[in-house]
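Section: Multi-chain targets

For targets with more than one molecule, the full set of components is provided together so that the structure can be written out for the assembly as a whole rather than chain by chain. Components appear in the order listed by the source. The example entry contains two components.
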Amino acid sequence: MNVMQAGIRKSLVIAAALVAVGAVTGCHKKASGIDPNALGPAPAAPAAAPTATITADPLAIDLGQSVILNWRTQNATTVTIDGIGDVSINGTQTVSPANSTNFHLTAKGDGGTTEANVRVTVRVPVAPTAPADADMGSEAAFHQNVQDVFFDYDSYDLRPDATASVSKAAAYLTAHPAIRVVIGGYCDDRGSAEYNLALGENRANAARTALIAAGIPASRLRVISYGKEKQFCTEENESCWQQNRRGQFSLDK
Amino acid sequence: MHRPKRTPASRPVLLYSFVALLFFLAGNVVSHAQEGFKTETSSGVSNIRIAVADFKPTSDDPQTSGFKHTFDATLFADLANAGIFDIVSKSLLPQSTPGAPAEIKLQQWADAPASAAMVAFGSFGVQGSRITCNGFLFDAKNLQYPQVLAKQYSEEATDDSARQIAHRFADEIIFRLSGGSQGIAESKIFYVKLSGGEKEIWQMDYDGANQHAITHLGTVSLSPRISPDNSRLAFSSLGREGFQIRMFSLVLNRMVNFSETGGTNLSPAWSPNGKDIAYSSSRTGDPEIWISDSNGGSTRRITSFRGPDVSPVFNPRTGSQIAWISGRTNLPQLYVMDIDGANVQRMTDGGYATSPSWSPNGQFLTFAWDRKYGPGAPGGQDIYVMEIATKRWIQLTHDGGRCDFPSWSPDGRHIVYANSPDGKATHMKIMTMLADGTQKRELTGAGADMPNWSWK
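Its structure, encoded as tokens over all components, is:
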């Protein structure tokens, strides 16, 4: 039964192919030939438009080296190159540009105007860039403008005073886009070491989130929690504990 | 904690547990009554009166006396520390020093003033470079067939060997007389040793002997956790990118790989099958509990709630639950959940709770808790034990300064913890106690923190 079905299907395919071939042949015959009505009287021949090419060899030089310009035009009466002036209609010239230049050739003739361009790249030795410090501002300026934020005990929410200093920090960081920052999360030495490391992470992240909200790209900010493993102050009183509950900003060098 | 009346130890433990449970149910109608449940130290088995004789020296080797002194002291201390014996004071013992079954006059030991129910004795000598030790345990109440245990040891002649032989013999005695629970004299404690601003991972025997460094990383390493088979040590270490989970192989004696990731990664905990590690990771910006395999792969996140989540610990009995600390409601509280993050249950009703450790039988959590936390509040951070099923708790330390990082012994009868009498972090030292809060003693001097007791 399968064999029989396959046989029927094959004969159908062959029939369809034959019909298709016949149709294509028919169309071809109809489309051939030129309609005589489409041919009108030929217009008067215009003056030939000018053509122009310009090349430079080599296309890229170091500062002080020279380059040969070579141009060819046809049907042109005047040829000018910007920066050089009128030149002959075909020619070569050696030039030594001080910086990368577009040589713009204009060819005018009876048939109109044509332009051609070539760009010569001049490699100017790059002066060593100023050290990154200049971009990043001084350490002192950083700490004056990007001040550490302090937290209430067992809290990682930014207080109003912290929000203000984060705004100031964000402005400074926006003005100095080269600066990258490490935000350290710190806790006072009460409580448990493991929990304080997690809390320090939340504190540093609160400062990071506020800076990102103020438009500082996340890629410039790095967070490390130190929990209570690194202390700023080791006395057992509230002013000391407050010193230790902080998000510390430092330059990520 | 009140104790039931003393009864002979040979009766089934199960019966006493059941009786204790009945007492417990009957005695705690008010849900806030916190006294009355039984930890394993007080589960109904009474203390057996045991006499530990100094062993008889059997050789003239000059080293014998020193090693034998170590052995005698260690064996006596192991049995005293076990928490299931009433040890006969050495001043009450008979004058004789029996070295073999033929040499002991058992009646002398059974009579007052020793009144021993059990006698441990034997011989100890050094021949050439070997220690040869024969240990016996006799039942002083059974004069006809007194022998309970006879063991022979032959080890290299070192002070450490003498101590290890004593530990092994003590564990045999404890195993026989404790109703079948394994002794802990061969177990180890891993901890953090402070030196200046650096913290390295150290190891010691369960009794504080043999303290030595494991890591030499020159940074701050915290939270050592030994794998159930004692082969690997997971911990957290401060690097340039913050804290990362690190892994040390005690078999290879070097660091092995554990995949690093972003954020702060803390407080690893082994699953009881040794295949998984739960830890706190802030790779998403908020510290959450994650589980990885023991190489740091196949990582999945378990919790998802703003605020610190840290210090996970598996239920060592089932491996299917995790207890951990969460600051989702501000101050850190103790929680329990399934290992897929379902069935979150809060265990503590307030205060500042940290550092859970799950008892080997799965029934209890021990943790550090400051119940009235805050500036100027009374009380301090102490060690508590909570029965998970009922959330009833008992307080194990009182007015001894700041306590933290309790960790159960493998037999569930002891808890090791860190204590600082004046609260200063640099004055932390490691202590042990029975799980009912009795028999507290120091294992280290100041400058040791975060103890973790091995699983066996």
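The mean pLDDT of chain A is 82.
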